[in-house]
Structure formats: structure tokens, C-alpha cells
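Entry for the shared binder. Reason: the reviewer on the internal report wants the predicted structure included alongside the sequence.
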Amino acid sequence: MNTMGISTDPALLQVELSQNLIESPSVSTFMPEEEASIYPLLSSNTNGTITPLTFSHPLTPCIDNDNDSNMSTNLCNEDGKVETSSSSGSSSGIGISVPSDIDASTTLFNKHSYKHLPNNNVIQDTNGHGPNGNIPLPKDTPSFVSWNWPLIRKCTFFVFMSSLLAMCAIVVAMIVTLPNVCNPKTVWYRGNVFYEIFPASFQDSDNDGVGDLRGIAKRIDYLKALGVTAIRLNSVFNSPHYPEDFENVTSLKIIAPYLGDLDDMRQLTRMLHSNNISIILDVPLHPFIKELGESSGGLFNNNSINENADDDQYEITTQRQIVVTKNLITECLQYWLEMGIDGFYVKGLEHVQDIENLPYHLIEWKNLLGMDKVLIIEVGVLSKLSLSQRQLALMHVDLIDVHLDVFAGTSQLEKKLNTLMQSEMRPSKSGVWIHWSLGGVDKIRLTRNQSSVDFTLAATLMQLMLPGTCNIFYGDEIALQAAYDTLNEHIETKHLHHLAVMRWSFNDSLQFTNRETLPWLPKSPDVDFHHLQYIKKMIALRNRSPSIYKNAICKTDAILQNMAIRRSHDDILVIERVYPRRNSFVSISNFGRKGVTMDMTALYYSGIVMLNNSDQKIYFSNFKINAQETIIVRLDK
């Protein structure tokens, strides 16, 4: 030990060492059989050769290997078990002989045997194995250790991937279904387009020469393609000689036999609703009804006592109930509401004798209809009322029908439009809206001769640029003219010639009636089906553009107009429509008979011409417009 530089002082080791242990042994001190094994980890064979010994760590399982030496096998099979020191709590592996009570077969054939661990108090499965093959576990081991973790990992991975794919699919579906734009919504009867039909002249289904309700049902695809939101049926009620005297109705609940019956009306209503088209009935009062009669205003308070109250106290609850005055009008409204009708245009109110009672009847009618149904009256009725009566009436009416005379000139149009925009019918957040009409059953046709075919298209496009709800009279979209009776064979119906039968494309196999039947009115001259595509595009543009279908810009502290007339002389009418964070549009209409070239750079610089098959850039420095033409331009920002 002195040769190793370690002190051999007995006082340091506190033990008595013999002299032979203090001195470093030499080779001669070993026994003869030990001379060849001077290395403590090497063993010698009888022939003197050194054979390395194979040792295994006390905590390492003994794995049999065919290439191992016999000494390795013996050492593995004769591993001692671990003795635990109770004083220190630590353990050290000491090689001892295998106890006799251990089965030899277990030692020989168990490839993963931990003989240094205690073999008592173990947990085994039904096959006598622990959670990791043949490894036994103590009884205090948690139960989750014995779970099938490979299977759990596979299931967890599958659930995770499935959830991830499902979330990705949901996100993709939401992105696909998102609308391209987010426009402000309005009630269905505000800002949209109505289509007015005289049923006897639209489509004949039974080949009797008179149009009917079933014929309208056959043309629903046409109405849907046109893009209208609702149809207005003129008088469908029975008269002594329908359709020649359709205005002289004898009942407000009986349909004219020429048009069909109640089942036909129900079927038409269902088909229209299935195509997202509403149906409105005209209710002509004059000359059938001359007085409105008394009305309580539609509401009264009904007081009821709460029976659950204390004996000395009681609670009175006030409920608003609808009062229905029993008269022909309310019975008519209730009757057709049950049939699924979506609104009414009450006509002829200006002729009733007790017009001062009208506001109270309007309250009653509107409460009867509800908020999702539309009530329309004519603007001329308001002039018959006092200021207070007019204000009360406007609070319970949805649309006011206003007729525009486009033949009066652009100056008169500007004056009328500006007057209406500043009147009691001016745009508001929840007030009445205007129902614009250019034609009707009591108006002459826009197309009066072949030279005014383009005028009809120009006027209709201008109408579709106005704020409010637009009403297109049947046939105006194709420039339908009045019945052509050169021989005066239908002189008795001359006052109805503007109600000429509808003309359909020659490519359409279904015409107004069959070839063997004459229509109830003579046919009109040729129409221009080329105009139809422009009307469809304009209605589609209106439906998707808040700048056009909204009648005002509603802010928290103010209501701003979104229409301005920029020019109204020399037969030129310029209408501009705007809306915040949306495209602005302008319509330039030339109602004159000559083309015009003008410089409009003081108002606009450039834009895109709409309604064409391709986007056409236009500059206002040298703006050209033909006679009887309307050009719709989307202004550049």
C-alpha cells in the first residue's frame, strides 16, 4: 500500500493490521495455483490460460445466450438475491447461492428473471404474469400499470386524428357556406321588386281565351328567373261580366269563375311560397263599398284580476287585444289571410264617404295583418286627410303607391322625387316606404308605339334605381304594347286594350292560349324580348346592392338620404345612389329623341358600365348616350 502512496499508519485506520498485510504482497506470496490469476476479474483454467469472467449487474435480468460460457450460465443461474439493510433503507446486491425452495424450471426457462427483487407479494394476471410479460409486480402497484397501454395509445391517436379531421372539415364547410357579402337586411316588401299581373291576360291554361290562376302557376319559373320578390294580382273577384267589367265586383271573397276556384288559389299560393315568392291581392272597394263605418281603432284594454293574489290585495293585468269590426273589409282580409295571402293593396279608399274614419280602420287592418304582411294604399288617399289623420295613417301603412309620369319630362320628375323625399314619406328607419309604379290597370302602356320601345326600357331601368319598392306591370319588361285592333272589331273593349294578353317567346312551346282559340283581347304588336335580359340583370344588381335597395343611411343620431338627383334638364336625368362601404351607382337617362355627348367630369371621373356582358370602362369627360336610353354606371372609388 506504500507503493500506492496511501498511508499505512494504524492510528489512521483505527485497526490492528498484521505486518504481512501492511507490506505489499509479491508474486511469491501467492499460492502456486493462484499465480496465474493475479488479475482479480480473470480466472484461470487448469491449463493455465486466463478466461474472462462474465458478470451481470445485480439489477440486470439474466438473459441466456447460446454463446455465453458455462461460467456465465452458472453465474446467472446462481445469482444471489438482494439483501436490504433495514437501518439505512438502501440495498446492495450480493451474489449467493439460489435457495432450494425456488423451482429450478423457473430459473432455467425464465428469460427475464429478476432474482434480486422479492418474489413474494406480487400481482399477476390470469396467466400468472405481470403487466410486462412475466415480470411480477408488488400488490401496492397502481392498477393503471397493468392497463393495455399499446391499445390505449392507438385508440387515443385515432380519436385525436379523427377530431382534428372533423374540425378541419367543419372549418372548410363554414368557409364554403359563408356569403360573399354581408348586406343589411330589410323586410321582404321593402326595397324589392313586385310584379303586377292582370290574371285574365297573363296565361290561359284551359284554352278558353282568358287567363287564369293555373296559368300563372305554370309561369312561376318565369317569375323566379325575373328575380321578383312578390306578385300583385289585380282584381280576381267575381263581377257580372268578367273580365270586361272587372272593376264592378260583387263580392270580396268569391273568385271569378273564369280564373278558377279556391283550390286553384291555394295551389298557386303554395307554389309561389315554395319558390320564395309572396302573393299580394288588390282589394277594390269602389264602387262596391261606399262607407267604411265605425271602428274602435283596433285595440282596447282588457283588465283581468290575478286570482293568486292575497285576499286584501289584487293585481290587475292589462292585455292588448285586437278588435275586429264586423264589416265586409275585415271579413275579406281574414278570409284571404287564412288562404296564405301575404298582403293587400286596398284600392278606392279616396272614394269612400267617411274618409275621416280611415286612420282607425288602418290601425285595425294592420293589427289584423301583423308585421310580416304588407298593407298598401294609394298616395292620393293622404290628400283627403288632415295633418293629424295623415300622420296617424302613415304609422299603420307599410307602402304608399306612387305613380310616376315619365312622359312629363325630367324637370317634373325631379320636382316630384325631391318633394316626396322631403315629405312625410321621406326615408326613415321604421316609417312607410314608397311603392313606385309606372303602369297599371288604370294607366296607359309605356310602350305606345313602335318608336317608344326603347323608352320603356329606359324608364324601367330608371325606376329600378329609385329608393323604395318597385312595381313592374306585366309586359313592361318586354315593351308590351296595347292591343292592336286596326279593324275596330273589339270596339266595346277599347278601354281595356292596355291590358293586352302577354306575349311569350316564339321558342316557348307554351303560348298564351292554343292556336285554335282566340284570346279575349286582340294581340299586341311585336315585342322586344331582348330587353328582358337587361331587366333581369338590373333586378339582380338591385337585390345585391344596398346602395340601391336601401332608401336611406340610418345612423344612431341621424337618417341620411342616399339618393341625389345631379341633373334634370335637356331630357337628361342623373340619379346617384350611395351607401357606406359599398359601391356607388349612378343612372344616366336620356328621355329625349336625340343622342347627347356631354362632359360630366365636374361630377364623376370614371366607372364601369353595368348590365353588359363584359365590364366596360367609361370616362365622363366625353360621355355619350343615345336617345331613349338609360346607362347604369358603377363609380370608381
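Summary line for the report: The radius of gyration is 50 Å.
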